[in-house]
Design goal:
globular, four-stranded mixed β-sheet, 11 strands, 3 helices, alpha+beta, paralog of FGE (formylglycine-generating enzyme), 10% helix, three-stranded antiparallel β-sheet
Length: 291
């Protein structure tokens, strides 16, 4: 099989993933869920050079008629107590909060917006006209899986994703090295300013940016730091507690990650996300086995 031009081949090897150190000056910190730094054996695989775009996803929907989780009412089995008024299609959209908001409560800047979905990323009055090359957002885990299956691919594991995102660098904080702004240049679409109130947009973007706006890593991958969070197939908790929804690991951070609040735009960083959650800053890229 010839190598698709939109994918990179990651060679089989033993790689270091994870992080268990902090910089003494506090400029970079690793979160507990990243620990420990460890060696993992990875079989050779392919991975998309970029996140799936609106144009890519539009083709998938046109050919399959797929309806995303955000376009459907909540599952009554999962949410039996919702009123009829609450049982409507909706998705999470970032809303800059008032100045007096305590940022220890992340829910203060998120709103479930009726009519927000991949075609309407900021709500029903928005659209994706002119955004063909931006990453698709408002996709839940099952949406990402459905696209990957249609494309003859799969979602990467969290470890595969991290190895690919590091671009061949060992123990570097970012996909390009250890300096956030080499030569005073922004290398990713992240938040500049006092999050969540003021984004100074020094990198040129408030919301998503076109894929490939910022430099590729050593494997040719773009947007592995910032822009949108990306689904992986790896479970966040292998054995969820009773009543807790199943989660998958998401990687890469997003345009809402800030140096002064959330430095999860580093390859080793991660979060757990419930399967039916879709937001304005979460997308995915696909991987593929080498047979």
């Amino acid at each position: 099989m010839s190598l698709p031009i939109d994918m990179a081949t990651i060679p089989a090897d033993t790689y270091q993933v994870g992080c268990d150190r902090c910089y003494p000056d506090g400029s970079v910190r690793c979160y507990p869920e990243e620990s420990p730094a460890r060696q993992v054996k990875i079989e050779s695989f392919r991975i998309d050079l970029a996140p799936v775009t609106n144009k890519d996803f539009s083709t998938f929907v046109e050919q399959t008629g797929h309806l995303t989780v955000s376009e459907l009412p909540p599952d009554p089995k999962q949410y039996p107590d919702l009123t009829p008024e609450e049982s409507i299609p909706e998705s999470l959209v970032f809303q800059p909060p008032p100045k007096n908001v305590d940022r220890s409560n992340p829910l203060a800047w998120w709103e479930l917006v009726a009519g927000a979905d991949w075609r309407h990323p900021q709500g029903p009055t928005s659209n994706i006209a002119g955004l063909d090359d931006h990453p698709v957002v408002h996709v839940a885990y099952s949406d990402a899986e459905a696209y990957a299956k249609w494309a003859g691919k799969r979602l990467p594991s969290a470890e595969e994703w991290e190895v690919a995102a590091r671009g061949g660098l060992v123990d570097a904080q970012y996909a390009w090295g250890n300096e956030l702004k080499p030569n005073n240049r922004w290398m990713a679409n992240i938040w500049q300013g006092a999050f969540p109130w003021t984004n100074e947009e020094e990198d040129g973007w408030f919301w998503t940016s076109p894929v490939g706006t910022f430099p590729a890593n050593g494997y040719g991958l773009v947007d592995v730091c910032g822009n949108v969070w990306e689904w992986t197939k790896s479970a966040y908790l292998l054995t969820p507690t009773p009543g807790e929804q199943e989660r998958r690991i998401i990687k890469g951070g997003s345009f809402l990650c800030a140096e002064n609040y959330c430095v999860r735009y580093r390859p080793s960083a991660l979060q757990g996300q419930t399967l039916d959650t879709a937001t304005c800053h979460m997308g995915f890229r696909c991987a593929q086995n080498i047979s």
